[in-house]
Amino acid sequence: MKLVTFTDTAGTRIGLAVDSGIVDLKKADPDLPRDMIGLMNQWQAVRGAVERAASRKADLAQSAVKLEAPVQRPGKVLAIGLNYADHIAESGQPTPTEQVWFTKAVTSIHAPFEPVQLPKVSPLLDYEAELVAVIGKRCKHVPKEKAHEVVFGYCAGNDVTVRDWQFKTPQWVLGKSFDTHAPIGPWIVTPDEIGDPHALGIRAFVNGEKRQDSNTKHLVFNVFDQIAHISKAMTLEPGDVIFTGTPGGVGAALKPPTFLKAGDVTRIEIDKIGAIEATVVAEP
Ligand code: ZN
Asked: 276 and 129 in contact (C-beta within 8 Å)?
């Protein structure tokens, strides 16, 4: 299933993306929770009703709604750095023996097709195509072999980065946390439709030109290694979002380095998930 958070004139709510459009879960079953984290919290009880709704005819055309970030306000947005060999090589850094974690501010979470802002304070705006895992169960100390059980689903993400702000201090958080810089979506695809999350083609395009082209099989620490490791430190909760790393081909590593400018269009595609796309606009 492909679960969406969407907005139309009747407000923001959750639904399913199906071939014919969007199934409105409120119409399918008025008793279902109205937001994605609420749905995850009650998933065992409501899963059957949601699966039945997936066979309904669409209530709305996809063009009639605005797709929002599937989880609009996660409790945490975690991200791993230096996690594809080719990206480590292009960054000139040694291969980490420890997982390198940072956070993105939850306020950077952004809808999948809305414009991304070129900050007032920097022209060094960059893209990073990433598979994003969404946690579905409250958990701590998850063994790697059981980590798949706590994943609610996957989406595409762009770990938009302000490179000079990322590296002017040892901590990357500010350069990773500008408003609009964590677009995710267009929906959460449930694991049954993904199969092996470590066998997905992942690509980034700028103005139609392919800049990143890899596969999640090249992750240094795979998604389940990541969940096992971070859950040793912190409780993960439904709706928490994990950016799982970017392959080679980011703008900063091009020769010459090539950063995003106003008017550019970024597109992040992942097999079995789909694509998110954003125009770069000057920060108002
Ligand atoms: Zn990243």
From this structure: no
User: Which residues are near ligand 1, the ion (C-beta closer than 5 Å)?
Assistant: 128, 159, 246
Q: Which fold has domain 77-282?
A: Fumarylacetoacetate hydrolase; domain 2 (3.90.850)
Domain extent listing, the chain = 2-67, 77-282
Residues of the chain with pLDDT under 50: none
CA of 246 to the centre of ligand 1 (A): 5
Tell how far the Cα of 242 is from the centroid of ligand 1, in angstroms.
Answer: 10
pLDDT attached to residue 282:
98
Task: Tell me how crowded residue 92 is: count the other CB atoms within 10 A of its CB.
Answer: 7
**Residue 56 CB neighbour total at 10 angstroms:** 15
Peptide bond into 186 cis (omega under 30): yes
- The whole-number pLDDT of residue 93 equals 87
